[in-house]
Design brief:
Layout (H helix, E strand, L loop, with lengths): L1 H24 L5 E7 L7 H8 L2 H4 L2 E7 L2 H10 L4 E4 L1 H9 L4 E8 L5 E4 L13 E4 L5 H12 L9 E4 L3 H9 L6 E3 L3 H7 L3 E5 H4 L5 E7 H6 L1 H20 L1 H12 L7 H12 L10 H11 L18 H8 L2 H5 L2
Helix pairs in contact: 2-11, 2-12, 5-14, 12-13
């Protein structure tokens, strides 16, 4: 009987060990995250890379990228239908000033690779007076950029021109080439098309604009507080994706074109132009620059009195990036 009991105990122990090994070998449960992307823009290439190369999964996340317009993206973040979003900083700040609780966790770009594009015959800013210019949406980042560029050129955007909503990038570009509007702000790959068509660049944001918040990763404060590990892992995936972006040009172009729905190899030249412009603005320590936030607040203050006295730091939650830097994680990735 003793031998039988001993054998039974050994068998039970073996079964338990096998179950333990099977459980330990099983992949950890991925945390689901719904992430909004406000445009098929190269500014969100790091998100595309993190998704396509498995970096989100490597960091324990099952991220669903959802294309949704900027306005609804902000509303979905507030309502909790999205957990995080890639969206223009101007929209986040405009909402947060009103008490929405949205916060910027990171910004993948510190400059806008925009150019102010005008017809070939427009040589001087004064030729824009009385003309109609087009933006994607009032209050959006390109609207903010348009107004900034016009002021830098000595024009009053509220008096000297008529600003209209002229649709997405492709629609605005077509409206410009057809003479329906006289100026747009646009980024690559449209800048290459503009150059080939002989259009003029009146203002270059990469060369002349101040630092600004571009390509943000944002979330609602309550979600951040309740899910610190998800936020930490999301930022780790982003940092790894940013390093991949800077060191793997051919692969990054392929991923970027896939998500932007641009055919390769027929549009390879356009994608190379896009990569070269955007990678210049991308760093491996994606802190949100308070100076960039202050610039957006100055623009917003023209319409919203609450923005005039707002502290730029109020809209930034950088503790996770600071932690990743202090522990040496960022430097270990960004070699």
């Amino acid at each position: 009987m003793r031998i039988l009991c001993t054998r039974l105990m050994v068998l039970i122990a073996a079964v338990c060990l096998a179950v333990t090994i099977a459980v330990s070998d099983a992949p950890a449960q991925l945390k689901k995250v719904r992430m909004g992307i406000s445009a098929l823009s190269a500014s969100y290439t790091t998100a595309y890379i993190a998704k396509d190369t498995g970096l989100f999964k490597k960091n324990g996340l099952d991220v669903e990228l959802i294309l949704i317009d900027t306005g609804p993206t902000v509303h979905a973040l507030i309502a909790g239908d999205l957990q995080v979003a890639g969206v223009g900083g101007s929209r986040i700040i405009a909402s947060a000033v009103e008490g929405s609780g949205l916060r910027m966790l990171a910004a993948t770009n510190n400059r806008q690779p925009y150019k102010l594009v005008v017809p070939a015959g427009v040589r001087k800013p004064s030729q824009l007076i009385g003309k109609t210019v087009g933006v994607g949406a009032f209050g959006g980042l390109d609207d903010t950029a348009m107004r900034f560029a016009l002021r830098q050129l000595g024009l009053d955007p509220n008096r000297d021109v008529t600003i209209i909503v002229a649709g997405g990038k492709a629609t605005r570009f077509a409206a410009l080439t057809q003479g329906a509007i006289t100026a747009i702000v646009i980024d690559p790959p449209y800048t290459l098309d503009a150059k080939k068509m002989g259009l003029s660049f009146m203002f270059d944001f990469l060369e002349s604009s101040p630092k600004i918040v571009y390509g943000t990763i944002s979330a609602k404060d309550t979600y951040i507080q309740q899910n610190p590990e998800i936020i930490r892992n999301l930022l780790k995936a982003y940092i790894e994706a940013m390093q991949f972006y800077k060191t793997h040009k051919p692969e990054s172009i392929k991923i970027m074109a896939k998500y932007m729905r641009i055919p390769l190899p027929s549009k390879l030249e356009e994608m190379e132009e896009t990569y070269d412009a955007f990678v210049r603005t991308t760093g491996c320590k994606p802190y949100v620059d308070p100076e960039g936030v202050a610039e957006l607040l100055r623009e917003l203050a023209l319409k919203s009195p609450k923005a005039r006295s707002a502290d730029p730091h109020t809209f930034i939650d950088s503790r996770f990036l600071r932690e990743l830097e202090e522990t040496g994680y960022i430097d270990s990735v960004c070699k």
